[in-house]
Design goal:
CATH architecture of the largest domain: Roll
Strand content: 25-35%
Radius of gyration: 25 Å
Distance between the termini: 73 Å
Number of domains: 2
Largest sheet: 4 strands, antiparallel
Amino acid sequence: MLDERTIGFADFRGNIQYLSVGNLQANHRISLILMDYANRQRLKIWGTVRIAHADTEPDLLAQLEVPTYRARVERGIIIHIEALDWNCPQHITPRYSQAQVEAMIAPLLAEIERLQTINNKSQEEETP
């Protein structure tokens, strides 16, 4: 967030996104769809975009740097938000990370293990 109606992100050398940057230079309108599958939320953003270059706006690009990422910011993509909409979640299928799934199924796996132990003991007692 650069201000209440402006967002931006860094474009790093090596992204090889020349087609996207070329499209943005030809048409300054942009729309983004940001998904939160786990919470079944979708944010649509409409706006206009401009490309900020290091040689003309170094202070702006410094704001977009990622402190933990060592690559040099080649340019910034600056989006002025004109409208946004939280979209209906009806058709959003929840998706989860592997860690989230593992946490959700851990109690089930523990119960399976408990039942297998009981079953094994029961079979041992039946065997003469």
